[in-house]
Amino acid sequence: MAGLMEKLGLKPGVIYGDDLLNLFKLAQQSGFALPAINVTSSSTIIAALEAAREARAPIILQISNGGAAFFAGKAISNEGQRAAIAGSIAAAHFIRSIAPIYEVPVVLHSDHCAKKLLPWLDGDYFCANFVNELAGSMMDADEAFFREHGVPLFSSHMIDLSEEDIDYNIQTTAKYLARAAPWKQWLEMEIGITGGEEDGVNNEDVDNNSLYTQPEDIWNVFNTLSPISRYFSIAAGFGNVHGVYHPGNVKLQPELLDKHQKFVSSKLKLDDGNSKPVCFVFHGGSGSSVEDFQTAIEYGVVKVNLDTDLQWAYLVGHRDYITKNIDYLRDQVGNPDGPNKPYVPSPSSPTLSCLVTDTIVDRNKKFYDPRVWVREGEKTMKERVLQALKNFKAVGTI
User: Where is Zn(2+) 2 bound in this sequence (predicted)?
Assistant: First the structure.
C-alpha cells in the first residue's frame, strides 16, 4: 500500500501550505495524529527526527518562546524578545537544513504565543514600538523567506489568546491569519484554557469550567477564520492540563470534540454524520492515557503536544549514564582502574578515533566526552517519541 508521501506527493523535509492541509486531512481520514515535539537544542531536534525516521512517520517540531531564547543562549537578554526571535529563527534554519536527510515530512511550528509574547510572533504588526535590529519578528522572517523562496520560513505558528476575551481572541487571530494567508501559512489558535503551567503562562488556579470549550465558540472561530484561509486549526479545551499529575487529578472529556464536529457540520449543512470539518489540537498531552489520545484522534485531533514527558525522557538518559559511571566523572584524571592506567581505544572505534593523541588518552575522557553523554539523552528521548508515534497510530504511515 502506498504511503502518505507517495499519495500526497510529499518530499522529505519541511512542508507547508496545501501539503500540510492535505497531510492533516489524510490523518483525520486514516485515524492517526502527529506528535508535536517541543525542542530546545540541536540535540533534542535530532532525537525527535531520529524517532520519526525509525518509525517512518511524519512529525511536528515546535519551539516555544522560552525554548527559542534558550536556543539563542542563556547569556543573551530576552528584552524585547530579542533572544527568542533570534533563537527561533536559528532553530528554523537548522531544522530546514537537517530535516531532509532524515527522509520524513516535518512540520516546523512555533508554540504558545500569549498576548504578552506577540512581539515575538509579529513585532511590527500590533507593537509599533518594538524594534529588533536582527529581525522584526518570526513573521517578518517568514515574509522575507517567502519573497526569496516562495514558502514561509515556518510551516505554522500558534497564537494563544485563550486567556483574553473571546471576541478579542477570535478577531485578533483573524488579523494574524490574514497576514499569513498569502504565504499559505498554517495558524493554530486556542479557545478554552489549558490548565497548569507552561513556559511562563500559569493557569493552575483557573475555574475548571474554563477548561471546557463550548460548541458555539468553536463555530464562531470556524465561521470567522474560514473566509480568510483554510489553513488553521483549533486547540479546544476538553479538560486539558499542562504538565504531569497523579492519576485521577485530570479529567479529560475528548468526546466533547465529537459534539463540536457535529455542531459545525450542522451549521455547514454537511449530511455525512462522520464529517470532521475542524482540525483539532490536543494540548497538555504528557501524562494522558492512550485511550484519551485515541478517542480524541477519532474525533478529529491531528496534532498532540508533548513537552513535559520528553523533558523527563531526555533527562533519564543523562541521569542513568552519570550515576552508572560516576567514578569516571569525578575528576578529569584518575579513575577506579588506577590513577596512571590509560585507556587505549580500539583502532576501529569511530567515536573516539579522532580523540587519540600519541595513541593514548586518559580513560576518563571516553566517559566525559559530550558526544557520549549527550547521546544517552537523545536515545531515551527518541524512545519516548517512538512511543508517542505508536500511541497516535502514526507508525509506518509514510
Answer: 160, 190
